[in-house]
Specification:
It is built from 17 helices and no strands. The protein is an all-alpha fold. Helix 4 packs across helix 7. The protein is globular, with a radius of gyration of 22 Å. The protein starts with 27 loop residues before the first helix and ends with a helix. The relative contact order is 0.13. Bound molecules: magnesium ion.
């Protein structure tokens, strides 16, 4: 079966909110990719935590280098499946653009703070606001004026929302699945961070090969294989080779499984894919099990490691204190936001402002405003 038939064809795109003339040699999704790369929110990913803050080392992933790794895996998988690589790349590059400072812990704390107002914070929905509203780069429209499929992919890349949950997003037809390119994002994101976090975890000396021997047998099987072929090799390089093979195994399984499921689905085009009751992208049962064991291991041994938790707690507490400070002192927000807070719900304006901050900027603001308030 020709899988290219289910690839998103830009000729079938629902287009942009504000129609624009075609570019002489760049496709529509390639233009979206370029707009994302040139956005301020994309550049700020460089100073947002993935797992380790820069205090640990300059060698570790931040959210920007993670994003580049996701884009690379997305392109490879999309190409192997005959999908639209430009759409997949645009979606990968934009997938974390709505992340607040301090990773998932920052997102959770912001969500808890918003819940007190009967509201929410969700990085996918925030990403949509960034590309529709907050990025101001063009004379003729607010935001980046991305194609429908990229905006839809931002909303739907990690999960399906119930239509009743978000009536304001009705235009994205939440009861339908997104194209395969968007469905890929969650899986390639996981492949990227599971392998990268293992790598950084070893480099930070928080993970050791001994603990993997007991807790992740499939990892040690591969490691032992590498060790047998390179008995004199440096441990660090053998670990690197093991992680590389693991990444390859996850990506290969994803490609093969997804190819099989598309073929078995009888879907003939993107519209058929949208109407299917379930998403098609996924791992085989065996590899899904391996992947979730790896995830659980990383939580236990890395994300919940006291050294990581301590700094994370301090950081998200600073986020909370700054949120409360701004709410009580709206006049201390930059002019654009303090004016906005007079017209819109102040908690939403404060949330949007904080969510856009880099880790460093948030800590600096906290030091200047809250640190100052505490000492007077
Ligand atoms: Mg990600």
């Amino acid at each position: 079966m020709d899988l290219a038939a289910v690839a998103m064809d830009e000729k079938c795109s629902r287009g942009r909110r504000w129609p624009e003339p075609m570019h002489p040699y760049r496709g529509e999704y390639a233009r979206d990719r370029d707009r994302v790369i040139h956005s301020r929110a994309f550049r700020r990913l460089e100073a947002k935590t993935q797992v380790f803050t820069t205090r640990y080392s300059d060698h570790f992933r931040n959210r920007l280098t993670h994003t580049i790794e996701v884009a690379q895996i997305a392109r490879t998988v999309a190409q192997a499946l005959g999908l639209n690589t430009e759409l997949a790349e645009a979606l990968a590059l934009v997938h974390d653009i709505g992340h607040p400072p301090f990773g998932h812990a920052g997102e959770m704390r912001l969500h808890e703070l918003m819940r007190d107002f009967g509201d929410r914070f969700d990085h996918n929905l925030h990403a949509l606001r960034i590309v529709e509203q907050f990025e101001q780069r063009y004379l003729d429209f607010p935001g980046l004026n991305l194609t429908f499929e990229v905006r839809e992919g931002i909303v739907k890349h990690s999960r399906d929302y119930a239509p009743a949950e978000l009536p304001e997003l009705a235009e994205y037809q939440l009861d339908l699945r997104p194209p395969i390119e968007a469905q890929l994002m969650n899986a390639v994101d996981e492949i990227a961070y599971n392998s990268a976090d293992l790598d950084d975890g070893f480099e930070a000396r928080l993970l050791q090969i001994g603990m993997l021997r007991e807790e992740l047998p499939f990892f040690t099987d591969v490691y032992d294989e590498v060790d047998r072929s390179h008995p004199g090799g440096r441990t660090k390089l053998k670990i690197g080779e093991t992680i590389k093979r693991l990444l390859d195994c996850l990506a290969t399984d994803l490609i093969e499984q997804t190819r099989g499921r598309i073929s078995a689905s009888d879907a003939k085009n993107t519209d058929d894919i949208r109407r299917l009751p379930r998403r098609l992208v996924g791992f085989s049962t065996q590899v899904a099990k391996t992947n979730s064991e790896l995830k659980r291991f990383l939580y236990r041994r890395l994300y919940d490691h006291p050294a990581i938790v301590e700094e994370r707690d301090r950081s998200v507490n600073a986020l909370e204190q700054l949120f409360r400070y701004y709410l009580a002192h709206l006049e201390s927000l930059p002019k654009y936001y303090s004016e906005l807070a007079a017209r819109e719900a102040p908690h939403r304006v404060v949330c949007d402002y904080i969510a856009g901050m880099t880790d460093h900027f948030l800590l600096r603001q906290h030091r200047e405003l809250v640190g100052h308030a505490a000492s007077t």
